Amino acid sequence: GVGLLTGEAGVGKTAALRRLTQALNPHRYQVIYLAETDFGRLDLYRSLALALGLEGAYRRAALWRQIKARIEELADGKNVTPLWIIDEAHNLPAEFFRDLPA
User: Fold this and answer.
1) Tens digits of residue pLDDT in 17-68
2) Does the residue 11 lie in any domain?
3) How far apart are CA 71 and CA 90, in angstroms?
């Protein structure tokens, strides 16, 4: 699923997310925190792949397949839920959001 936390600058969104993730069971959740979002979607996917322990394919479609397979492996095989937190998501390229449903 996808969640969204919004609020004015300085109200503590980032602090709240950090507190939430610190309270999660590390055996059940793999937290991936991304704060720099002002680069292209391929860079975002590579960052996610690295955080998931993947070397990362060269082409975007292959990289996205690797990421999806790793998430399924974690969720189904190890009962671990990856939690990808994107701070400053308003800086993400629009194309990124088109890939998510895939």
Assistant:
1) 999 999 999 999 999 988 877 777 888 889 889 999 998 888 988 998 999 9
2) no
3) 24
How many structural domains comprise the chain? Answer: 1
Return the residue matching tokens 């999660």: 24
User: How far is it, in rounded angstroms, from Cα 74 to Cα 18?
Assistant: 22
Tell me if 8 is assigned to some domain: no
Domain around 47: 26-99
Phi, psi of 80 (to 5 degrees): -115, 130
At residue 69, the pLDDT reads 93
Q: Residue 92 domain-assigned?
A: yes
Report yes or no on 16 lying in a domain: no
Report the amino acid identity of residue 61.
Answer: A
CB 80 within 8 A of CB 74: yes
**Which long-range contacts (C-beta less than 8 Å, at least 24 apart) are formed by 65-68?**
68/102
More confident residue, 35 or 69: 69
